[in-house]
Specification:
single chain, about 675 residues, 7-stranded mixed β-sheet, 25 helices, 20 strands
Length: about 675
């Protein structure tokens, strides 16, 4: 049991946290029966409350971002999910406490290996899954000087450094930064059109609250309709909570507020472009977790928009947002404005727990600066993953590139990078700096019985995306038995993009591999598809529905490396050839037409040339002596031949090709085409 002096020290520690408006951190380590009596003492005599207990592996807690708790207990006796750790730590308010329950502080203990269920994948068992993430986590934890450690045989009470008093703001604002943000949001409606506002900050700075307060104030001014969008409605819960509070009405579980003659309404990303009413303002929360193409479309359709994004967070990373979306605003929206919100809302600046979480989960990983680095003498390496544990700078360099390249990179990806049993890490370096990296997953080599069950749709297994898709969706029997390498992520330093660096890395991976098939699965965009096509990969499937993570259809591209691999490629590619043209008028009638043009041009199933009668039908139509409907067959065939580059039309640009595809292959209405291509009407179409 804890002694009176030890309890007095812990109480003094927590009292200082309250004074500084920072969070206390308590690490209880040991068997449950050993630490429960100690925890009960601390709850009764230090916290004077019983903390809410959460599981360290329950990912539903991630959805609670925006909630606030004075004291939380994260039970890690069943394991630690890095995303959960990051999200839960952000719920604790200044003056409160985060309690971590750990089985022990020995990363070599086999108990830690049995917790890696999220990384398990056929045919590996838990004993083959690494513990590098846990080793690094425990090493960081033991160096965390402002955390208290409590176990059956040790108690270490930390000292708390004094911090300056917080600068307070007048109600309803939590900080001066938030007050300025609300004024800037309101100014978007009173200023010039097409000048978006971008709010950025670290977590816990009150961006969502600022959006909610501003929305409510605009309704009070007589504005009628404010739309809110984001990765999902749960991500906007804090916004609606603060809007309801400002309007002095009872909050609702539904993301919708109606007040007098105005409303604030959540609209899903895929429904925003077809919203039927006039809109005063569009608020985009957690914009870093949204694909850049969707953000661009929002700017294109709506003239008054506010984007809020977390620069270092768990919903998506603002670094990629900064490199991909901000240049677009610079080019398209002269006079757009930005604000960085620095002051934390829930805790004081200098909070030690925030610094620990950022460092441990690499939320603060920044890309290396390049100074005259040469790209003509690059060194290729496959990284031994123990290097990631022992070389922090190397780990940070690789992870920062992955964060920048993909908007949904999360702390859990850090664990997969370090410990995934089927993962290999590849880099290109110059002057000892990592300028490109790729994660590659081993797949396939599935035994005959399981492969047959996958083929007949009786079984699905985690992680084998290429092998499973080719077997189950593309219906290439026995393809799951082959050996695959799937490029999960490929990332290039933003200053070296479009200089062939990514292709060089891909070529090195191909040369070093001894598999049947290489491939990738990704949210399809024109740019990404063109990259893979340029490197000799062929499309074999396009997912029928959009991914929730990317807002795009998942494309599957592959490249054969063996005779058996070529047989699989030929079958899958030919089937995609046969299906895609027909699918454009049905399941893919709404996909981006530039993407469709790119995929169609990559298909090698050539059509017969136009015959004399078809040419005559086209001539009469061009002279306006035939209706479009009377020559539809010839027009359709001509469209396909143009898009497959079997007919070259001098001066035809991509916009004109898109118009042909949308009209004749996707069967879109003339009124829809006129609006989308900014034409005056049916005659112009």
């Amino acid at each position: 049991m804890l002694t009176h002096p030890e309890l007095a020290q812990l109480a003094a520690y927590q009292k200082n946290c309250v004074k500084n408006h920072t969070r206390g951190t308590y690490v209880f380590n040991g068997r449950v029966d050993e630490i429960k009596p100690l925890l009960d003492q601390v709850c009764e005599q230090v916290f004077h409350t019983t903390p809410q207990k959460l599981s360290g592996v329950d990912r539903s807690h991630i959805a609670r971002l925006g909630d606030e708790q004075e004291c939380l207990l994260l039970d890690c006796h069943a394991g630690i999910d890095p995303d959960v750790l990051g999200a839960v730590s952000g719920l604790v308010t200044g003056g409160g406490a985060l309690v971590l329950l750990l089985p022990n502080l020995n990363a070599q203990d086999p108990i830690w290996q049995q917790f890696n269920e999220t990384l398990s994948i056929y045919p590996y068992d838990n004993s083959q899954i690494g513990t590098r993430f846990i080793q690094r986590f425990i090493a960081k934890l033991e160096k965390f000087s402002q955390a208290c450690f409590i176990g059956a045989d040790q108690v270490r009470v930390a000292a708390v450094e004094s911090l300056p008093e917080r600068e307070m703001a007048a109600a309803p604002f939590a900080t001066k930064d938030q007050e300025v943000a609300v004024a800037n949001i309101r100014r978007v409606l009173s200023g010039h059109r097409n000048r978006p506002l971008v709010l950025t900050s670290h977590r816990g700075r009150g961006k969502s609250a600022a959006l909610g307060i501003a929305s409510a104030q605009l309704l009070k001014q007589g504005r009628k309709r404010i739309l809110v969008t984001g990765p999902n409605s749960t991500a906007t819960r804090s916004l609606f909570k603060h809007a309801a509070k400002e309007l002095e009405i009872e909050g609702s579980l539904k993301p919708f507020i109606e007040w007098e003659k105005g409303l604030i309404e959540f609209v899903a990303l895929d429904e925003l472009s077809s919203y039927p009413h006039e809109v005063d303002l569009v608020l985009v929360d957690e914009a870093a977790a949204i694909p850049t193409a969707i953000l661009k479309n929002i700017v294109y359709i709506h003239s008054r928009v506010v984007f809020a994004t977390t620069q270092h967070g768990y919903e998506g990373n603002g670094k990629g947002f900064q490199f991909r979306f901000i240049p677009y605003l610079d080019a398209q929206c002269a006079g757009w404005r930005s604000q960085f919100m620095n002051q934390a809302v829930r805790w004081n600046d200098g909070d030690a727990l925030e610094a620990f979480i950022s460092d441990t989960l690499l939320l603060d990983a920044d890309i290396d600066e390049l100074v005259d680095e040469k790209i003509d003498a690059l060194e290729y390496r496959e990284i031994a993953r123990d290097e990631l544990l022992h070389q922090e700078d190397l780990l940070r360099s690789i992870f920062s590139l992955l964060v920048n390249a993909h908007y949904r990179t999360s702390p859990h990806d850090l664990m997969q990078l370090m410990d995934g049993p089927n993962i290999s890490v590849h880099v290109l370096m110059t002057n000892k700096k990592v300028i490109a990296t790729a994660l590659v997953a081993k797949e396939g080599e599935i035994d005959s019985a399981l492969a047959d069950e996958i083929y007949t749709a009786k079984r699905r297994i985690k992680g084998h995306i290429l092998a499973q898709s080719l077997t189950a969706q593309c219906a290439v029997k026995n393809s799951a038995k082959l050996f695959y390498s799937r490029i999960i992520r490929i990332a290039v330093h933003p200053e070296l993009k479009r200089k062939g660096v990514g292709s060089k890395l891909l070529n090195q991976i191909e040369e070093a591999s001894s598999v049947d098939v290489l491939g990738a699965s990704f949210g399809a965009s024109t740019e990404l598809v063109q990259f893979w096509l340029a490197n000799g990969y062929l499309p074999v499937r396009l997912g029928f529905s959009k991914e929730s993570s990317s807002g795009a259809h998942a494309a599957l591209v592959i490249k054969a490396k063996s005779h058996l691999g070529q047989q699989v490629l030929n079958l899958a590619y030919n089937r995609f050839n046969e299906n895609f043209l027909l699918q454009l008028g049905d399941i893919f009638s709404t996909i981006d037409s530039e993407l469709a043009c790119t995929l169609l041009a990559a298909l090698q199933q050539n059509l017969a040339a136009l015959n004399e009668d078809e040419i005559e039908q086209l001539r009469l139509y061009a002279l306006e002596r035939r209706n479009l409907e009377d020559g539809i067959a010839a027009l359709l065939k001509c469209t396909v031949l143009i898009l497959k580059n079997q007919i070259h039309v001098e001066g035809m640009n991509i916009e004109q090709k898109r118009l042909l595809l949308e009209k004749f292959l996707q069967h879109r209405k003339s009124s829809e085409l006129a609006q989308g291509f900014k034409l005056k009407g049916k005659q112009d179409v």
